[in-house]
Amino acid sequence: MKVFLRILGVILLACLVFAVAGVLATWAPDRSVQQLSVKWAAQPSQFLEVNGMQVHLRDEGPRDDPVPIVLLHGTSASLHTWDGWTQSLAGERRVIRFDLPAFGLTGPDPQNDYSIAAYVRFVTAVVDQLGVKKFVLAGNSLGGQIAWNTALAMPQRVTKLVLIDSAGYAMHPTSVPIGFAIARTPGLRVLMEYVLPRGVVASSVRDVYGDPARVTPELVDRYYDLTLRSGNRQALAIRLEQNLSGDESAVKMLKLPTLVLWGAKDRLIPLDNGKRFASDVEGSKLVVFEELGHVPHEEDSQRTVEPFKAFLNMP
């Protein structure tokens, strides 16, 4: 019996040692904006004070463009998701992109209000401060839902709308990124405020790509670093707790030129939702990318920007 107890004690001690080692190996305290800005806010980044937040923003291309392009990213992404599109567009058009509240270097909203109405007010405040009167608006996922609601709120200012794997209808995912699942689980999300295995981030990014082989270590570094921005992990949990569903019938009220882009391998917001947008928005056009996933603009920027440029009648 004593031998058994000794063996059991050794096993328990080993488990404890391995558990402590695991925590130490994945210990990931928050990082300040100043720390992260060295790598992720180089020129042409700027910070704009909006609604009590220092908003990370990039405003590129010709300033005499009468109708700039505004790009909105999705949950847990950042303005960097549009790097490829911006590179292709900014030679001819003014392109404005920024980190939404709860994400990137902008970080948490002071009021912890992540309702769609609050995001619409935020987007409006940003374009107002930049002096933009009319603009083309494109958004991915959460950014898509914000985009179409902004178009409804400002029909005289949003001239064209682009929805990329957009939220807005009831979602029936076939796979959810593990990072989102953890953020929705009370015990685990508290733990993840202090530890963050890089593998969790890598798995989450691969989950939203049609071809996981396209996910590079550099891409994972970006998502990992910006997740560690002070307050972002808590803000993500709060954002996911808040109900983003709205009046689905409102989509049919959209009366502006609309392009719907969708990755056929999107497992978070499947293609059926894209087809529904195309059906509900009169006169809209649906373009499907068979091999791409939930973030097609990031996964293959050159291929996906072409129908957008055609939609803008750009050369």
Structural commentary:
The protein contains 13 helices and eight strands. The chain has helices spanning 2-26, 33-40, 83-89, 116-129, 142-153, 178-183, 186-191, 198-207, 217-227, 232-241, 271-280, 296-299, 301-311, and strands at 45-50, 53-60, 69-72, 95-98, 135-140, 158-164, 258-263, 285-289. The longest helix is centred in the N-terminal third of the chain and has 25 residues, at 2-26. Strands 1-2-4-3-5-6-7-8 form an eight-stranded mixed sheet, with helices on both faces. Helix 3 crosses helix 13 (301-311), helix 4 packs across helix 5 and helix 8 packs across helix 9. It has a single domain (33-311), classed as Rossmann fold. A hairpin with a 2-residue loop joins strand 1 and strand 2 (53-60). The model is unreliable at 3-25 (pLDDT under 50). The chain has 315 residues and is of the alpha/beta class.
Q: Would you summarize the structure shown here?
A:
Helix 8 crosses helix 9. The protein has an 8-stranded mixed β-sheet with strand order 1-2-4-3-5-6-7-8, with helices on both faces. The chain is of the alpha/beta class and 315 residues long.
